[in-house]
Amino acid sequence: MDAIDLRLRGLAFVRAFGIVLAAIPVMLLLFLNKDAYCEDSAVVQTYVHSFDNISVYTGVFALNKDLSLQTSVYLKYAVDFVNPDIEGSEGGEDGEGEEGDENELRGDDALRKFSYVAAVSGASGVASTAGGGSSLSDTRNEFLGGITHNFNNIIALDAYLDYSTESDYKSTTPTITLKKDLFEKNTTLTLGYSRNMDTVSGAFMDRSEERNTDNFFFGVTQLISPVAVMQIGYSLNQSGGYMPEGVRLVPVDGVTADTCTAESATCVDESLPDKRNRNAYLVSVSRYFIEGIGGFLNRSAVKLTLRYYDDDWDITSYMGEVEYYKYLTEQAVLRLNYRYYTQTQAFFIKDSYGSEDHYKSSSPQLEEFDTNLAGIKLTYFLKDLGLPPVLLNSIEGKYEYYTESIGVNAHVVMAGLRLAF
Amino acid sequence: MRKRVFILILLLGIAAVSGCARVKPWEREYLADPIMQLDYNKEEKAVREHFLGTREGSAGSFGVSGGGCGCN
Predict the structure, then answer these.
(1) pLDDT value at position A41?
(2) Res. B3: pLDDT tops 70
(3) Which of these, A25, A225, A289, B37, could form a disulfide with A297 (CB 3.0-4.6 Å)?
(4) Cβ contacts (< 8 Å) between B45 and chain A: which residues?
(5) Residue B13 has what pLDDT?
(6) Contact (CB<8Å) A215/B64
(7) Contact: B69, A231; criterion CB under 8 Å
(8) Could you give the 3-state DSSP secondary structure of residue A120?
């Protein structure tokens, strides 16, 4: 990594962090008033997802404001900057860098980085097929706004609208969730529905295409004892429309991937089924420990999560995760986490395709593979500094290492702070 | 087969908790601790789900989803 790479990475990080910091005073001016409740808060976070030769810099700003004891509003803005790290691959946000041909990747580099970019953030790199190269910088913006209202402690309603946009992808998602407490709030039932209305316009597509997904969710949260709580969930997702991402080509009839940089008779668009039904089942248990194992469990909590998933593309997956929380001091909380994930491949995945194959894919997400994720996080809760009306409530930082059995590794770094007012 | 085993575990879990004693409001000190909150840091959770959702071929059951990602 040379000085230019470091400078570009630094600029992207500063840009992500600066945007969310700049939003703080504006939002506080809008939301601060003498009727502020104790739950009012703002969150600022920055993330770096760093792969072998590409990084995604993310900034998040969120604000929660209680309008009354029954009603609160929530606003969030998130931005992803996708930043290729290979020298000469740095383009503008719209993929049209000022350095012309120097921005173009070729052969394996281009294909591999398409895989990274599309998979890291959803921000699919802008490809310029002219000249057979690709420029992969992109920016994804997400806006979310919602309201929560509790109807006389009988039932709670959440209504959210999420909009995200990037160079080749737009998504609008309204969500509605109902929550009902039962048995002296020992049991909470959750029923949710959302609809993703997406427009895909990938670099290898002639025109924009639509994809819609209906998401249904049902969950039960149950108190088991004064120190344990359990959650069970089921979700059904039904998608229809254009399913590929429009940013990948599939080599056919013996052509190798490294020569497949532009659409041709032997480098064709992905072709996937136009419907997909997905089921996911989740069980999670959290247990608080007052003391135990020679102090190791003193003031700690352990959370176990299992998820089973299947769909009608024949992908089956299992996910298991364990999180360990521990108060190191009165104000510092440590989190250690490990997650294992494994999946089978889609029924149409093959090592090589012929022109006669109806379905063709070069998406690594549809292959068989395992992933591991391990991390450490430290949160420091600050005492009341007596500086109303805004109080710095906590600061936090984490590091995670992510690896896939198909040869992809990533470092994830996060820093954040929470303000209360 | 594995799916049936998983669903069986799920049903056993439901059966197990359905008979548990009720926890009174004044017994919830530890349940109210921030480290026991299932959704304490939903911003971090959303970024993480988005990242993993775009890397992996499956998703769901962590609540209703939003903010499409152009991923499989």
Answers:
(1) 86
(2) no
(3) A289
(4) none
(5) 64
(6) yes
(7) no
(8) helix
Question: Does the model's pTM come out above 0.95?
Answer: no
pLDDT tens, residue by residue, A162-178: 999 988 889 999 999 99
Q: How far is A419 from chain B (nearest CA, A)?
A: 13
Residues 6+ apart with CB under 8 A from A270: A244, A245, A246, A248, A249, A250, A360, A361, A362, A363
ipTM: 0.81
Q: How many other CB atoms sit within 10 Å of the CB of residue A200?
A: 23
Q: Answer whether residue A392 shows pLDDT above 60.
A: yes
Distance in Å, alpha carbon of B69 to nearest chain A alpha carbon: 4
Q: 3-state class of B25 per DSSP?
A: helix
| Tens-place pLDDT, residues A348-378 | 998 888 888 899 998 888 999 999 999 999 9
pLDDT digits (tens, 9 = 90+) for A47-85: 999 988 788 999 999 999 988 889 999 999 999 988 776
Mean pLDDT of A212-239: 92
Chain A residues with CB under 8 Å of B34 CB are: 333, 381
CA angle A149, A388, A419 (to 5 degrees): 55
In A, minimum Cα distance to B1 occurs at A316
C-beta of residue A138 within 8 angstroms of C-beta of residue A167: yes
pLDDT confidence of residue A278? 94
Which residue in A309, A346, A371 is closest to B60 by CB distance?
A: A309
Nearest residue in B to A213, CA atom: B68
Distance CA A25, CA A202 (A): 37
DSSP reduced 3-state for A322? strand
Contact in structure between A342 and A318 (CB atoms under 8 Å) = yes
Judged by CB atoms closer than 8 Å, whether chains meet at A223 and B23 is answered as yes
Contact A249, A264 (CB under 8 A): no
**CA–CA separation, B66 and B57 (whole Å):** 16
Which of A216, A226, A281 comes nearest B30 by C-beta? A226
